[in-house]
User: Which sequence fits this backbone?
């Protein structure tokens, strides 16, 4: 749990990295990790609590059908579970920019959720269309990476069946390296597109407005 | 609708410009972060798997009665210690900031 939290906070630093690189700056990863630690921990805790509340219909499905046969209970849970999934997807759609608002714009936990909600609500068609394009691209990248990973797995299995344990072990290490590089490559492709959409939708305009107000009159 | 498509197109073209301008540095930054994440998961996994293997080893040996109890208590304490050790790893990472 703690390692997952540390890794998640580290994961939030990638947004700072993309923001800084877009502005031609370097990122001090450990320093950013330190700055992000408390807000991101609070954010994760809040999102988990909201997610649990959204998943409550599944429990309701169980309660409504308690005493019935196992199949009826499962049916009730699936039916109510569907409601949970729909609400969860809606929630994820509305708060999709909240992490960017939290770690880049340095908003508070609740404020970042509100800000993302307002941004998505204001640009609902653009965000929906972008998400469809983004999911198609992500799916394409995911398919390519899974094919490459599968090739390595088959290779390792063939070596193991052929009795070459050392070969299989080396293949395993190579496989981990390939998975690692493919994960980084996926981030590398997808993250900037997502970041620049967010910039294009809101904060950039605010920055330009700020710049305009700072300019001295001729 | 045109405005919508323009915003999406701009997002892709800005991303393309960024890849061209500072793609290499960006990739290196991402490599560093992913490496740290994997190191954390790797260390924790090794500790937990080791603990599980010790636990399994104890069960295979077939110790009974008080021996089993003491073995289990020891192993649970070991797993708890391994889980607790994850926090210092995070703190160490925090404190090493310049």
Assistant:
């Amino acid at each position: 749990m703690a390692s997952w939290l540390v890794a998640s906070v580290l994961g939030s630093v990638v947004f700072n990295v993309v923001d800084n690189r877009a502005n031609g700056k370097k990122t001090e990863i450990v320093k950013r990790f330190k700055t992000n630690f408390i807000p991101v921990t609070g954010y994760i805790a809040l999102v988990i609590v909201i997610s649990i509340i959204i998943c409550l219909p599944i429990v309701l499905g169980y309660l409504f059908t308690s005493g019935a046969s196992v199949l009826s209970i499962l049916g009730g849970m699936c039916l109510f579970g569907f409601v949970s999934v729909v609400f969860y997807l809606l929630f994820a759609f509305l708060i999709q920019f909240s992490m960017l608002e939290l770690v880049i714009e340095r908003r508070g936990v609740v404020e970042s959720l509100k800000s993302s909600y307002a941004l998505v609500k204001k640009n609902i068609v653009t965000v929906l269309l972008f998400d469809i394009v983004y999911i198609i691209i992500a799916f394409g990248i995911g398919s390519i990476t899974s094919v490459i990973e599968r090739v390595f797995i088959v290779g390792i299995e063939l070596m193991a069946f052929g009795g070459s344990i050392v070969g299989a072990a080396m293949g395993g290490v190579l496989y981990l390296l390939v998975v690692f590089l493919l994960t980084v490559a996926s981030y590398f492709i997808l993250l900037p597109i997502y970041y620049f959409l967010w910039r294009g939708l809101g904060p950039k305009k605010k920055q330009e407005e700020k710049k305009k107000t700072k300019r001295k009159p001729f | 609708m045109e405005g919508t498509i323009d915003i999406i197109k701009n997002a892709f073209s800005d991303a393309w410009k960024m890849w061209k301008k500072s793609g290499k540095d960006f990739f290196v930054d991402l490599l560093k972060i992913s490496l740290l994440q994997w190191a954390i998961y790797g260390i924790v996994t090794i500790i937990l798997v080791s603990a599980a293997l010790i636990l399994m080893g104890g069960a295979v040996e077939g110790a009974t009665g008080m021996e089993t109890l003491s073995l289990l208590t020891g192993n649970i304490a070991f797993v708890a210690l391994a889980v607790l050790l994850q926090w210092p790893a995070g703190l160490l990472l925090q404190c090493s900031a310049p």
Q: What stands out?
A: Chain A touches chain B through 45 residues (CB under 8 Å). DSSP finds nine helices and no strands in chain A.
